[in-house]
From TrEMBL:
Residues 1-96 bind DNA. It comes from the Bacteria. GO terms for molecular function: DNA binding. CDD domains: BTAD. One of its GO terms (biological process) is regulation of DNA-templated transcription. The lineage of its organism: Bacteria, Bacillati, Actinomycetota, Actinomycetes, Streptosporangiales. This is Putative ATPase. Belongs to the AfsR/DnrI/RedD regulatory family.
Length: 1008
């Protein structure tokens, strides 16, 4: 959140969108807190500032109300910012950084300008500072007493900055421009001697000497008349200099400083942020080192900054790549300093000069460079050094700027522009994205690849891309930069033996690895486990390894080079086996933590390791390691299921099962078959897993898999079979003392009961499941128990309670990253919105749920959301749209053996027929719905079908038959404990439109 006081009070979000503070007192409160610059303001002081003598009846309450309003407005504009308005013993304060306010940014820029000796840089910084002003400070509170001191202080700072900039521009010789711009300011401040002095200097230097002398006399007279004072020493000295026509008052004709750096021949792309950071670092520190892997563009950035850097004695480049020794003589040669035979130290020779020295490619002489640069910086105050190196120089005062690869959009732009320059358009966006991703955004690699487009085409290049293809760079480039392999080899040759060993073995990891993984997979061959951490640290400092978020990663071109080294040494297969075995063990260890308090942390760990786990599975399958492959998929199956990765689960399990298994893999194979069958239920590819359960000898594993097969059928399979599996699993869990399993079985039975209309059982089992899951610390389990409790509240018309349950479930699902469950909870909330008449909100929630399910390839959740969209469409009268949703869902349910949901969809199609006036079709559809509901023992669905049949009878002219059916439905609901809620008694989702009309026309003669 950003705040503006340099003009009318303004608030912006982090993205620059303005925030409206709607009420005058709330705006005044914010302004009062802002002018205190983070200091506390007592409640009494705020009340006095806001209301003065016109106090409200309850001042403390009124103030608290305004504070709450301010917090709410800020939080709505930028969620998570409610605590910006803090409160403590000393009062209220804004807990924001100084640069969150434009006045703070202004002060920082002015301060930096004051520390900068270069007038051009100083002028630019002051121009940036003054550009922050949008008008008089706090213009809308100019009359507020609390704002007066701050306004005065800010306006004085603005005026001082205007004076500073005028003086800097005069130092640059911009007298004509300053004279034209400073006239109005001098007229507004006739007694401010510094403004007047700058104006007089500008007039004189612009050739308007007579005007300058006349203006001086006017200032002298006004000082005498209004203050009774003479001009100060500065003005008096300036007047004397003008009278004697001092040449120093005229603009200097500057000779361009020596600039011994090559001019760029191509535009730099995507480096605006890095260029800014380097310039700022160079203004603050006299030694700045750009680090990063080979080819990332360190030299190009250094030259870009050097090309626009102003120093009195010039900018000088020293190329070190081809040197094997670096000393003071190297610097003397680059600077053109004559050796007069006096043996004077270079620091003494350069003392008093101001220059920028660019040292390019220091990595192979980094110790020698440090030995030269350190003393020079201490001996020559005007010296600045901009170095490029794969690792820092480690000299006191050094500022290190890590140059990252290009962002994807900038990488694509660089590649396409270079390809076009080579004579061939790269117009296949997907292929370009693939190339940029494979090359990890390294500019040199992208430019080398772009040069291949004319010969191969961009699609062919994307398919055939490999390290050795990236050669034939520009002939005028150094030999080490003509191929990407030579760039990497340059760095490889500088590494020690242990560094090469660890780096090469890291290359088998995909997407990076943790320190633990590196220690377990990279040790050996003369590198001890305890040494790996230190070696990694050195590789990070040498820009060969990228470290972040606790993970170590190689850029893909470096990884490919290292894999080639492993292959040449005959170590690649062994390294991949170590990688495979480590991640198989990790998956097994993670699985044991996914049903307890560590659930969220281990889900995050598995999420981070997905690429490595896939690579481990590929390795196991490729080499026929059936037991390892089955271990990997069995350990991950539960994670895949709860996170909605059903497609990946299905494919991975099938691949593992296809490997010819050894005898020892029998139990693992049976478990995988059970996972496959359960996941198949969710994806419409159900299989028979009864045999697999028989082959599971371990009682605990058999209970878990039996439970899973029952749980996976909820809403998509044969309900009776699912309930039987859960009941049997519950007994087996009880026998082995598995409390998590007991809770899971109860949660599943509660959900089946809710679907079947047995609300009493749903409530009882749901509450017990929630308590057990809370005991074992399983948030996923709490979510499973929450859903039937919400359904129970929905069915009984307790919509606020249902909303609370489903919202709690949604928050848990989002926190755990369980996107299929997020889809389900969003659909559930959509149903509540539908029942409470908020159709727009219902459609929004159901569509959000549908998109999330599609992203997760979760067909069951997709159809559940689509049914909700169909219900809304029917209510809105969009009958064709609703029919399309219902028939698609019915086809899906029949394919997987739907049961209860099939009864609902047939009834909904029957209601559509009623609304179209087709009594015969309505009667047929409701009869079929009734048959399905009775077969599934679904009392709620049976009552729903009977009410639908009643509507069809009314359309057919048989109100007496309709009355009987409605009475039967009412009795059935009462026996099942699912009465129509009073607020919903005649709701269109509970009873047909036709029956509602009949009830109205018979004046209550039809009992219900």
């Amino acid at each position: 959140m950003r705040f503006g006081v340099l003009g009318p009070l303004t608030v912006w979000t982090e993205d620059g969108e303005p925030v409206r503070i709607p009420e005058t007192k709330v705006r005044a409160l914010l302004a009062d807190l802002l002018v205190r610059e983070g200091g506390p303001v007592s409640a009494d002081r705020l009340v006095d500032d806001l209301w003065g003598d016109d106090l409200p009846r309850h001042p403390a309450n009124a103030l608290q109300q305004k504070v709450s309003q301010l917090r709410r407005v800020l939080n709505e504009a930028e969620p998570g910012t409610r605590d910006l308005v803090g409160h403590g013993p000393a009062g209220y304060r804004l807990t924001i950084e100084a640069d969150a306010v434009d006045a703070g940014q202004f002060a920082v820029l002015v301060s930096r300008a004051g520390r900068t000796r270069d007038p051009r840089t100083r002028s630019a910084l002051l121009a940036d500072a003054l550009a922050l002003w949008r008008g008089p400070a706090l213009a809308d509170f100019a009359d507020a007493p609390f704002a007066g001191p701050a306004i005065t202080r800010l306006e004085e700072a603005r005026l001082a900055a205007l004076e500073d900039r005028a003086e800097a521009r005069l130092d640059l010789g911009e007298h004509h421009t300053v004279a034209g711009e400073l006239g109005d300011l001098a007229a507004r401040h006739p007694l401010r001697e510094r403004v007047q002095a700058a104006y007089l200097r500008a007039l004189y230097g612009a050739g308007r000497q007579a005007e300058a002398l006349e203006a001086y006399e006017e200032v002298r007279r006004r000082l005498a008349d209004e203050l009774g004072a003479d001009p100060g020493p500065q003005l008096a000295a300036l007047h004397a200099a003008m009278l004697r026509q001092d040449p120093a008052l005229m603009p200097r004709t500057e000779q361009p400083a020596r600039r011994a750096v090559p001019a760029p021949v191509t535009e730099i792309i995507g480096r605006e942020e890095e260029t800014r950071r380097i310039r700022e670092s160079l203004e603050r520190s006299r030694l700045v080192t750009l680090t990063g892997p080979g080819g990332v563009g360190k030299t190009r950035l250094a030259l870009e900054v050097a090309a626009t850097w102003a120093e009195e004695d010039g900018v000088h480049l020293v190329e070190l790549a081809e040197l094997r020794r670096f000393d003071e003589e190297t610097v003397r040669t680059a600077l053109g300093v004559r050796d007069d035979g006096s043996s004077r130290p270079l620091g003494e020779v350069l003392y008093g000069r101001r220059l920028l020295l660019v040292l390019d490619n220091c990595e192979h002489v980094v110790e020698q460079a440090a030995a030269v640069v350190g003393p020079l910086l201490r001996q020559v105050p005007g010296l600045r050094v901009l170095a490029t190196s794969r690792e820092p120089l480690r000299v006191s005062g050094e500022a290190v700027v890590v140059v990252p690869p290009l962002l994807p959009a900038d990488a694509a732009r660089l590649f396409t522009e270079r390809a076009a320059a080579a004579g061939q358009a790269a117009d296949d966006a997907d292929a370009v994205a693939t190339i940029c991703r494979r090359l990890d955004g390294i500019p040199l690699a992208l430019e080398l690849a772009a040069s291949r487009v004319p010969g191969l085409g961009v699609r062919e290049l994307a398919e055939r891309l490999h390290l050795r293809l990236l050669g034939d760079g520009p002939r005028d480039a150094p030999a080490r930069q003509r191929t990407l392999a030579s760039v990497i080899e340059w760095s490889w040759d500088l590494l020690s033996g242990p560094e090469r060993t660890v780096l090469a073995r890291l290359a088998v990891h995909v997407g990076g690895c943790t320190l633990d993984a590196a220690e377990r997979t990279c040790a050996g061959g003369g590198v001890g486990v305890s040494e790996v951490m230190d070696v990694l640290a050195r590789l990070v400092s040498r820009s060969m390894v990228v470290q972040g978020d606790g993970r170590y990663r190689l850029l893909e071109p470096i990884a490919e080079y290292c894999r080639e080294r492993l292959r040449d040494a005959g170590e690649l297969e062994a390294a991949r086996r170590r990688h495979r075995d480590y991640h198989a063990a990790l998956a097994v260890r993670a699985e044991t933590h996914l049903r307890g308090p560590g659930q969220q942390a281990w889900m995050a760990r598995l999420e981070a390791e997905q690429a490595n786990l896939r690579a481990a599975l590929d390795e196991a399958i490729e080499h026929g390691a059936a037991e390892c492959a089955l271990t990997l998929v069995n350990a991950q199956a539960w994670y895949w299921f709860v996170t909605g990765r059903l497609g990946e689960a299905r494919r991975s399990i099938a691949r593992a099962l296809a490997v010819e298994p050894p005898d020892a893999a029998g139990a693992a194979r049976a478990e995988a078959l059970a996972w496959q069958a359960g996941i198949g239920l969710r994806t419409g590819e159900a299989g028979n897993a009864d045999r697999a359960l028989e082959d599971l000898d371990d009682p605990a594993t058999r209970a878990r898999m039996r439970w899973f097969l029952g749980f996976a059928r909820i809403g998509v399979g044969e309900q009776a079979v699912g309930i039987r599996h859960l009941a049997e699993a519950r007994r087996e869990f009880d026998a082995v003392g598995d409390r998590w399993g007991m809770a899971a079985a109860l949660a599943g039975l509660a959900r089946y009961a809710a679907i079947g209309g047995d609300l009493a059982t749903a409530g009882r089992d749901g509450e017990r499941a929630a308590a057990l899951f809370a005991e074992v610390g399983d948030q996923w389990g709490v979510l499973q128990a929450t859903e039937p409790l919400g359904v129970l509240a929905e069915a009984t018309g307790e919509y606020p309670a249902a909303t609370r349950h489903f919202t709690t479930g949604l928050r848990i699902a989002e926190r755990l990253g369980l996107w299929s469950e997020v889809s389900l909870m969003s659909s559930r909330l959509g149903r509540i919105a539908l029942l409470t008449g908020d159709h727009e909100r219902a459609d929004e929630l159901h569509e959000r749920a549908r998109r999330r399910a599609v992203e997760q390839s979760d067909k069951s959740m997709e159809e559940f959301a689509r049914i909700g969209l169909g219900l809304s469409a029917r209510r809105r009268g969009s009958l064709d749209e609703a029919e399309d949703y219902f028939r698609t869902g019915l086809e899906w349910m029949r394919r997987i053996g739907g049961g209860g949901p099939e009864a609902l969809l047939l009834a909904e199609l029957g209601f559509l027929a009623e609304q179209r006036g087709d009594a015969r079709a309505a009667s047929d559809l409701h009869s079929r719905s009734l048959d399905v509901a009775r077969a599934e023992d679904d009392a709620r669905g049976e009552a729903h079908a009977l009410e639908g049949l009643a509507g069809a009878r009314v359309l057919a002219g048989d109100p007496v038959g309709a009355a009987r059916l409605l009475e039967a439905a009412r009795e059935l609901r009462e026996r099942a404990g699912v009465p129509l809620p009073p607020a919903e008694r005649f709701d269109v989702d509970r009873i047909s439109v036709a029956v509602r009309k009949a009830l109205a026309s018979t004046k209550g003669q039809i009992p219900i």
